[in-house]
Protein: dCTP pyrophosphatase 1
Amino acid sequence: MMGGQEEQPGVVEEATVEKVLKRSSSVVSEKEVTLKDLARSMANFAAEREWDQFHSPRNLLLALVGEVGELSEIFQWKGEVPRGLSDWNDADKEHLGEELADVLLYLVRLADVCNVDLGDSALQKLQKNARKYPL
Structure:
């Protein structure tokens, strides 16, 4: 994901991911990860591979759109699906998780490259929506 032409989409070794997560200011468990942790990890991941040259806002946006397309394909012919995906098998749920992660990682990377605090922007947007759509 995230790189130059020689890299295969979606292929990242588990040991590499663990190393990237450990390089942030503190060791992060999957349950405690923040947007800032992800941004730091993604920045380190890209810098180590010299991929910053490819991570322009435009390129990241186009990659994000591609990943949203892959996410959409999962649901394309399923019709409505129940919340919680109770009728999905484990492999389909894992695939969904991977595509959701790809979308999140590109979104976080795009926000970071554009110097946008994604968490703060999301909270501000929620507040704006609460004013726009009061109870």
